[in-house]
Amino acid sequence: MINGKLVVDNFAGGGGASTGIEIATGYSVDIAINHDPEAIRMHKTNHPDTKHYCEDVWQVDPVKVCNGRTVALAWFSPDCKHFSKAKGGKPKDKKIRGLAWVACRWAGLVRPEVIMLENVEEFKTWGPLNRRHHPVKRKQGQTFKKFVQQLTALGYEVQFRELIAADYGAPTMRKRFFMIARCDGKPIVWPEPTHGPADCEDVKAGLRNPYVGAYTQIDFNRPCPSIFDTSEEIKEKYGIRAVRPLAEKTMSRIGRGLKKFVIDEKDPFVIDGKMPFLIQYHSYAGQDVRGQNLRAPLMTLDGSNRYGLVCAFVSKFYKSGIGQDIREPLHTVTTSPGHFGLVMAYLIKYYGQGDGGCSVKEPLDTLTSRDRFGLVEVYGTKYQIDDIGLRMLEPSEQYGCQGFPKDYIIDHDYTGKTYPRSEQVRRCGNAVCPPIPAAMVKSNLPELCVATRQPICRADRMQMEQNGQLRFV
User: Fold this and answer.
1) Are 357 and 277 in contact (CB under 8 A)?
2) Termini Cα distance of the chain
């Protein structure tokens, strides 16, 4: 407890909101609730001082767990799948869509001083379903209005808006709906953005920092196997598995992205001898390649790994005599080590139709739950593309783009059980970006922000487990 008051995280998941609260206050949340045992185990691994309830949120009695203590903050991140546009036209589950009502239950029973809620932007369209379990269009937003009205009737001032994680220092452009409700008579304060696009006036004036680029979280030293190698060759060269050959549509997307973000790029991004950029894999058919520079944050992540890192390996292009037409076969490439230059990279997103992309100079785009040769000129020097590599983004890179601390444990739990890659990615895509709850808590509950978060090492966690200090219900 902080100042004798509780902090509770409902729908705690893998710990994104809890981590943000801990970044702000310096302390773990007191209570974390989630129905998924694996999510609780990850949360417990990283928040060992928290008391964990592995139960349906409706089965937890707020009066009993709070035991007469004041709740300073109750955070809610109800399942968003049955609101999100990513769900498409599939039938919706009324029970899942109704999980947010638990916030009103807590408000009525233990009256948290501040309630914060996070969900997808479409949460505001919450309304009744028809017999086929699809939203009734003419009644969109009706249930949401009733939800707000009930909190108001319980004595809460309620405000809501959409926030972008990149505005608060996370290398992702993820945008989400946030609500703040409070009953302690103090004003609701929305945190001022600390970051912005490089060309915005506040950044130019030094009032804000420039966006944190997605490239800051990508390890460009990891192997990026050639798209032209076979699976057997890749395994022999790198000792890793990779699916080859790639589908024709994937090769086409890579080719169009390569042209737009490498060959036709006037001001290519160069880092450590590499030229990276991102490509989205979900634009609609008939659209041009959509992308962004890697100087910007990554686009939104979800629970599936749909981004791949593509590297165009290049060498300096040497001409003899008066040169050559690029439609002709390439002239001899020298073998001198000094002739090898940049490595170029971009991300390709594995879903939808057509192409889309973004430079690694920017934050990562929203994550969801899967012609070979040319010339490029860089500051007056021509390079010949020799090869193109492709790999999927690592879970650690995705967590970094979501704004998680470097020490956050994602690959195993406190017992030593390892998590498969798919589980790590799913937890990341479903997680709240920690920088936003951190900013919201600092703005609205400064009296709780009394310490600095201290990373706890793996050995300490193991010792706490042996001593029976990890509280799990």
Assistant:
1) yes
2) 18
